[in-house]
Amino acid sequence: MRDLVIVGCGGHGRETLDIVDAINAQTPTWRFVGFADDDPRHPDRLQRRQVGVIGPVSTVRDAGHPHVIGVGAPDVRARIDRGLTGAEAVTLVHPAATVASDNRLGPGMLVAAGARITTNVTVGRHVHLNVNAVVSHDCVLGDHVTVSPGVNVNGSVHIGDRVFLGTGAIVLPGLRIGDDAVVGAGAVVIRDVAAGSTVVGVPAR
Fold first, then answer.
1. How buried is 171 (Cβ within 10 angstroms: 0-12 exposed, 13-18 middle, 19+ buried)?
2. Cα–Cα distance between 167 and 204 in angstroms, integer?
3. Sequence-ordered list of residues with C-beta below 8 angstroms from that of 84, at least 6 positions apart, any chain
4. Alpha-carbon gap, residue 199 to 50, rounded angstroms
């Protein structure tokens, strides 16, 4: 078993620990060392899980721990990643997720329970594919993208860096979503989304 640290001990970080526990229940793989967090909160929630914080985020770099970043916000995740240059980021796939053929998953990716990746999908660094989200054939996702629960990304979509797709959003085939864009929860994207913009609604505007 290999040591592993989760950066961020909030709700998303604790959900990341659930992925680790599910992997270990099937095949013992990771020895969870603890969370790293510069501003840890809700110690009672960690105590109930019988886990703790080993130190600030810099601990990961200084100790050379393999890590994943359990932080939901793409811009924050990107900033943490820059600060951990050279530290090993690992990819975690929940046993109840499916990753099919001919895919390329970047370091630090999290694939949660019920998530689906079909074929010929390319994914960048520290992308989070949350519970029951789907990414279909021939898609490209940049670095630090957050795909929230229940999102459906149809085939041949190109998603830039640090994009946030809100819960239940749908992206129709062949579209492009620019860097740092935000797609609101439940939105249906029927046209390209410009970099840095926020779109909401059905259809998304």
1. buried
2. 14
3. 7, 57, 60, 61, 67
4. 41
Within 94-159, residue ranges assigned H as helices are none
Q: What is the average pLDDT value for the chain, to the nearest integer?
A: 97
HSE (CB half, 13 Å, CA atoms) of 154? Answer: 12
Q: What is the pTM of this model?
A: 0.95
Within 10 Å of residue 82's Cβ, how many Cβ atoms?
Answer: 8
Write the single-letter amino acid at 203: P
- The tokens for 159 are 């998603």
151-164 tens-digit pLDDT: 999 999 999 999 99
CA neighbor of 5 nearest in space, from 117, 80, 116: 80
